[in-house]
Amino acid sequence: MIRRVLSLLVALAAVVAALVVLPAATAQAATCVTAWNSSSVYTGGQTASYNGRNYTAKWWTQNERPGSSDVWADNGACGTGGGGEQPGTGFVVSEAQFNQMFPNRNSFYTYSGLTAALGSYPAFANTGSTEVKKREAAAFLANVSHETGGLVYIKEVNEANYPHYCDRNQSYGCPAGQAAYYGRGPIQLSWNFNYKAAGDALGINLLANPYLVEQNASVAWKTGLWYWNTQNGPGTMTPHNAIVNNRGFGETIRSINGAIECNGGNPAQVQSRINKFTQFTQILGTTTGSNLSC
User: Fold this and answer.
1) CA distance 127 to 152
2) Rounded distance, CA 89 to CA 48, Å?
3) Rounded to whole angstroms, how far apart are CA atoms 90 and 133?
4) What's the rounded Cα separation, in Å, for the pair 34 and 208?
5) DSSP secondary structure letter of residue 107
6) What backbone torsions phi and psi does residue 168 show, to the nearest 5 degrees?
7) Which of 21, 104, 105, 228 would bridge with 151, disulfide CB 3.0–4.6 Å?
8) Is there a catalytic annotation at residue 147?
9) Residue 114's closest CA among 216, 245, 252?
10) Residues paired with 53 in a beta bridge
11) What backbone phi and psi angles, to 5 degrees, belong to 85?
């Protein structure tokens, strides 16, 4: 009888064990490698991340988006959560919102190029409340949109102006040539002294090779962020400080082109910037604040 009871208990334990489902271990996604950049050249074996997944290049490739080309081998989800979510860039503007802002942009101006440049100025769109962070991003991108026709133009259209931007009175002169320092990038960096200053700040020799600003999306965005975060221009403060210190969007216009547009100089251009800023704040779900005009 005892043996029979023991046999029944053993059998029952086996049944219970078969019915108990242990919780699955939480999947741990791999760390995302460096984000894919459409301007970069990748050779076989090099890696890049895109939309929350890691990829490895099978052979030489440039501007072939991971996930849409058989050049790339999919290595699976990366980032937090293990479910293939797109890893957060820390930027308050998503790629979908960026595309909504610039539906006709030049393919040179990539979202990945912008997010790759953010590390150079970590306070940008990352200071104050969420409302202020989004407001600064909207202000920057609105001015950028105005300067480039909606991120269409990489360099200044009027080539007749090109020789004008060389100040040979500077001790370092214009080593790239008389006509090499024309406007480029999202805030149309121009003049040899600005290329020198931006290059020194970013650790890139832009004085010798200003063409990098029209060849590398990340470099282009970095020059725009350099100006926004460090230069007063014709104003009295940087555009970054104008937003985070609640001085208003109008002060960002003054810092970028105030000598020509502000104080009644060109009210139509000022209003164009304001209209774009208002549109972008609506996309980001934030407010414009006061002092919109200059």
Assistant:
1) 29
2) 15
3) 11
4) 28
5) T
6) -75, -5
7) 105
8) yes
9) 216
10) 50, 77
11) -65, 150
Confidence band of 12 (pLDDT split at 50, 70, 90):
very low
List, for residues 219-237, the tens digit of each pLDDT value. 999 999 999 999 999 999 9
What are the start and end residues of each CATH 1.10.530.10 domain in the chain? 95-152+229-284
CB 29 within 8 A of CB 81: yes
Q: How many residues appear in the chain?
A: 294
110: three-class secondary structure by DSSP: coil
What the block records as the tokens of 22 is 């242990």
Percent of the residues in the chain that have a pLDDT greater than 70, as a whole number: 81
Burial class (CB in 10 A: 0-12, 13-18, 19+), 225: buried
What architecture is the 25-88 domain classified under in CATH? Answer: Ribbon (2.10)
Q: CATH 2.10.10.20 spans which residues of the chain?
A: 25-88
First CA to last CA across the chain, in angstroms? 98
Identity of the amino acid at 250? G
31-58 residue pLDDT tens: 666 776 666 777 777 787 766 677 787 8
| Structure tokens given for 266 | 């060109």
CATH class held by domain 95-152+229-284: mainly alpha
Active-site residue among 136, 147, 251, 261? 147
Strand 53-57 versus strand 47-50 pairing type: antiparallel
Helix ranges (H only) for the chain are 2-19, 95-101, 111-117, 130-148, 192-202, 212-215, 217-230, 239-244, 249-261, 267-284
Question: How many Å separate Cα 105 from the centre of its chain?
Answer: 14
Distance CA 253, CA 273 (A): 8
In whole angstroms, give the CA distance from residue 131 to residue 286: 5
